[in-house]
Write a structure and sequence with these properties.
Length: 404
Amino acid sequence: MIELGLARITALLKNTPQTWKAIHVAGTNGKGSICAYLNAMLRASRLSCGRFTSPHLVDRWDCITINDNPVTEAQFQHFEELVKRRNTEQCLGASEFELLTATAFEIFEAEKVEFGVIEVGLGGRLDATNALNHKTVAIISKIGLDHQSFLGNTLEEIALQKAGIIRPKVPCVVDASNPPSVLEVIRSHAKSLDSSVKFADLQSSDFGGELAEKLERHQQQNLLCAYEAFHIAHPHHDLSKQELFDVSANAVWPGRLQSTNIQKVTGRTQPILLDGAHNPQSADALSNFVEKRLRVPGKPVTWVLAASAGKDILEILKLLLRDGDNVVTVEFGPVDGMPWVKPMNSGAILQTIDDAGISISARQDAQVDVIKGLEWASKISDGGPLVVAGSLYLVSDVLKILRA
């Protein structure tokens, strides 16, 4: 279950030194990509780096990496048991995410990393990751409406929660493409803490040629945020801005605009696209990518869709789907370490499409059988574009199927 607050995590970490420098990343969308770009820049500069992102994609421990490599299951379990024992002895009642965060910080300390790149789990001010001791820079990415029951019902309310990661006199980098009212909330909060703000403003001169063709605009914006933060955290680096852009553009961030092959599962020879878009903002970015790079005349897009229970998916579906597209809805399986996460009923997703007035060419309700859904999608698409979207947990299920 989700329990925001810093008392339990602070108690869990009171004897953990945290000697590494932390780069803390909050926001609604783009956090994971920014972390991946930062990791690439740090490694290109020959700096040791730990990275903690959430949720995991395939295994619970793949959300913690040391110098590009996920920690081993044995190492993860060793430190997880240490943290769980501490939690039991002190009767703290820590949440699953708090235990996971403490485990990541313990591993970073044991590995003696120089930098830790930390993605906020939910919100910012009361998120477990905000128990960091040595922040060198904070980053706030694109902010949208998500998790309103925890963070507030307006962009400004949500922005104030995200801005809670800013510390006194610690610089903050902010995605300048956010609405002016959001930028003002962050600016005002930073000023109250005597902290400087660097607005990462994407100019046409920042990206050009091959890089502009390779990266979508939202990816360019995320990369610029990462660069500005890296420059603050490690100002005496040897690499030029263009060199850092180039090395980061090749960073792999699974589950986001990820092209992969499912031939061994369905026989389809053409690649498919995996994207965990699960809110209107990320759905808009995915839609732009699909319209620009995948959709072709005479070939509808075939979608494999799932969503988390309780999610308002109407706006997401209106952004992604076009009349004449094909849709198969599925329900993702149990999420390891996150038992409170449940899938939306697959039939309800199809009903929402009908309610939105979108005319679907062909449809299928595969329910809990993700492989059946992929097989149907592969057949009906007939070599045309095929996209898996709506939930990172569905992306995780597909990646697990491919690994197996």
